[in-house]
Specification:
Layout lengths: L1 H18 L3 H14 L8 H8 L3 H24 L4 H11 L9 H9 L3 H8 L6 H16 L3 H37 L1 H11 L4 H7 L1 H28 L2
Helix pairs in contact: 4-5, 4-8, 4-9, 5-6, 6-7, 7-8, 8-9, 9-12, 11-12
Amino acid sequence: MISALIAALSTACAIWLWTGPDRATTRLTKLLLTRNSPKPRWKSLPELLKTSTATPARRAETWRQASIELCQSLSAELSAGRTPGESLIRALSAVDFPEPDLLRPVVAAARDGGDVSVALTAAAPQQGGEGLRQLAACWQVGTMVGAGMASLIDRVAHTLRAAQAHRQDVAAQLAGPRTTARMLALLPALGLLMAAALNMHPLTFLFGSLPGLLCLTTGVALDACGLWWTNHMATQAQP
């Protein structure tokens, strides 16, 4: 019974690996869905719960995406002939940020004529706030030197989009090694099932004798070290 189950699972995995989409198709589909999916103007309770439990990396990516949308909206408002303060207020109201309360000082500074660049820098989170910090520097240069702010913000948006595309490409390239490492980490469990199907009693040996305990401890330690090392290399490879 167990051997038949193992054979069925192995056959299903082989069919999925052979007939499933390749990496390029999966990456292209993900990029198209990300680019073409509209963002809601309001958030339901499940979305709020999802946002509150999001990982720091996902929250940082959400901040980066919102910063790109802010730069695009702000450039469009400035090109329409509105003042910088009014353009920033309208652009901030049109973008859904993960934590909109952090941007209230920015709205107040733009409305009351305060230092917008300082407010943007203070509101930018440590992770994912690169776009807001670049926008703050752009705002400071535009107000002090008198340069065309719309063209400067367009350059900032272009830089942020290029950086986002690079991060997505690196993440797509690292998806394969991470999946392979997880699959290799599960192979010892498959070996135990195969040994149990052959009536070799592997658990009795591993937990009932000193050599078995040593083998179990060494195997678990090596497996954990392999997973940690793979994740460490993938994390270092990301920008």
